[in-house]
Amino acid sequence: MITADFLKQVCGALAHGKARQAGVDTALREAFPGMPFTLCSDNDIPSRLQPLARGEGFALYGINTAGHCAALTSNTDTASGLAIALTDDED
């Protein structure tokens, strides 16, 4: 379940440039077993979608895997994983 406390923990794990470290998604999967994480560019996220949380150099979006295909979501009630979207300096 994705809660405000969980998002705070993930943001803390990604702070201080750690979001850009190689293998960060694998490290998060190990730290939070059973929670899917994926890494992408924020440029690949539809601009209409609001992040669940932001940190320096990244934004977190929910992943809903309830349907046939996974979909991004801004709703923590339907999110079952997180996309870590790396942001550019100019974003």
Average per-residue pLDDT, rounded, comes to 92
In N-to-C order, the SSE pattern is HHEEEEE
Poorly predicted runs are: none
The helical percent reads: 10-25%
Q: Which structural class matches the secondary elements?
A: alpha+beta
* Amount of beta strand: 25-35%
Distance between the termini: 29 Å
Radius of gyration: 12 Å
Largest sheet: 5 strands, mixed
Specify the overall morphology: globular
Description:
With 91 residues, the chain is of the alpha+beta class. It has one domain. The protein contains two helices and five strands; from the N terminus they run ααβββββ. Strands 1, 2, 3, 4 and 5 form a five-stranded mixed sheet that branches. The radius of gyration is 12 Å and the shape is globular. The protein starts with a helix and ends in a 5-residue tail after the last strand. Residues 26-74 form the DUF6129 domain. This is DUF6129 domain-containing protein.
